[in-house]
């Protein structure tokens, strides 16, 4: 029996085999693990980053370090400040306070295009492919230092034609790797959501980055392309790059991340290796609410068991609610009294 299924329309087959587990990076931190723990070789160091919108504090990070040549996941519930932190670190937004460095260079106040030129690139949750350009043209836009982009040299094709050919050749190699070579002459608008994610990641690699930041790379992706995206992210690390990504899929995080940083209400509440972070009470509380160790069946009396102190108030509230419901039901079932008619 085949371990893959052919997709409709002649697309790539979807593997049903279990994904291969690659070795994880270890020994990334110094000392005891806690929010803001120092890393052995950090590529980003940020201090006192704060961003508010009116009366809402979206990001309030005291200290954070991103380990080099590792895959770091930034997780947290909706509204935790993950994408806002991404925007601040990449120059797409300005903080109210704070400073941070990339490869020892201060990025405070540096615009996004210069951040990218330094080797720190990002993708977006909603892809930014230029729909009216072809896939190949989108790829060529990602290359740095193009002579033809300068006004004077653009007037003399002999000055940039050779470089243009080299860029196009490199773009086709990446498109082949990301299985988009057959789409190279198609408009980007014709691609599926998953193919646009692949295109955006491939285009980011045209700039030969040191750090790749992915904002929810799996959002809206057909399951048929999920494993392909996972493999490409793992390949980035194998090729010597550092990866920082935002994601809600905990199975993906556990599978590929070497280190996990958890945010809630704009703050870093936990960090560490994936397996340890998933057991952290602060992480459970951030995602599910506090005191999830209290079984609702024990509280309601449906099953036998002892109620911890933290759950007794819940039992009192349930008992009061039950009493009110019974009282109301009794009143509703009692027929109204009618006064006797006088003869």
Helical/strand content category: alpha/beta
Question: What's the CATH topology label of the largest domain?
Answer: Rossmann fold
Average pLDDT value? 81
Question: Could you tell me the number of beta strands?
Answer: 12
Encode the helix/strand succession as letters: EEEEEHEEHEHHHHEHEHEEHHHH
Name the shape in a single word: globular
In helices, the fraction of residues equals: 25-40%
- Name the poorly predicted regions: 1-18, 294-302
Order of the strands making up the biggest sheet: 8-9-10-5-11-12
Features:
343 residues, alpha/beta, Rossmann fold, six-stranded mixed sheet, four-stranded antiparallel sheet, 12 strands, globular, disordered N terminus
Short structural description:
The protein has 343 residues and is of the alpha/beta class. The protein contains twelve helices and twelve strands.
Would you give an account of this structure?
With 343 residues, this protein is α/β, with parallel strands linked by helices. It folds into 3 domains: 189 residues, Rossmann fold (3-Layer(aba) Sandwich); 59 residues, no CATH class; 31 residues, no CATH class. The protein is built from 12 helices and 12 strands. Strands 8-9-10-5-11-12 form a 6-stranded mixed sheet, sandwiched between helices. The chain has a 4-stranded antiparallel sheet with strand order 4-3-6-7, with helices on one face. A hairpin with a 2-residue loop joins strand 3 and strand 4. The longest helix has 25 residues. The radius of gyration is 27 Å and the shape is globular.
């Amino acid at each position: 029996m085949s371990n893959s299924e052919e997709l409709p329309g002649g697309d790539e087959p979807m593997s049903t085999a279990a994904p291969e587990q690659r070795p994880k990076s270890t020994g990334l931190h110094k000392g005891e693990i806690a929010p803001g723990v120092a890393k052995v070789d950090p590529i980003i160091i940020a201090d006192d980053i704060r961003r508010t919108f009116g009366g809402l504090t979206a990001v309030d990070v005291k200290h954070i370090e991103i380990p080099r040549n590792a895959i770091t996941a930034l997780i947290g519930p909706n509204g935790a400040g993950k994408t806002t932190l991404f925007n601040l670190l990449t120059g797409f937004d300005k903080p109210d306070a704070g400073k941070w460095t990339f490869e020892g260079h201060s990025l405070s106040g540096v615009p996004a295009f210069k951040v990218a030129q330094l080797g720190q690139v990002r993708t977006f949750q909603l892809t930014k492919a230029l729909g009216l350009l072809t896939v190949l043209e989108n790829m060529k836009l990602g290359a740095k230092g193009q002579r033809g982009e300068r006004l004077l040299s653009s007037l003399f094709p002999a000055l940039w034609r050779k470089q243009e050919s080299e860029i196009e050749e490199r773009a086709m190699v990446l498109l082949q790797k990301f299985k988009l070579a057959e789409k190279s002459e198609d408009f980007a608008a014709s691609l599926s959501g998953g193919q646009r994610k692949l295109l955006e990641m491939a285009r980011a690699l045209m700039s030969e980055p040191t750090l790749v930041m992915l904002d929810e790379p799996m959002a809206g992706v057909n399951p048929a392309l999920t494993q392909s995206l996972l493999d490409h992210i793992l390949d980035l690390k194998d090729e010597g790059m550092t990866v920082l990504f935002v994601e809600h899929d905990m199975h993906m995080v556990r599978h590929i991340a070497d280190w996990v940083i958890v945010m809630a209400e704009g703050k870093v509440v936990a960090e560490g290796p994936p397996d340890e972070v998933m057991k952290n009470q602060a992480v459970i509380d951030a995602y599910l609410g506090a005191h999830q160790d209290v079984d609702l069946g024990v509280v309601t009396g449906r099953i036998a068991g002892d109620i911890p102190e933290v759950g007794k108030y819940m039992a009192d509230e349930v008992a009061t609610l039950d009493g009110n419901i019974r009282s109301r039901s009794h009143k509703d079932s009692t027929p109204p009294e009618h006064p006797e008619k006088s003869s």
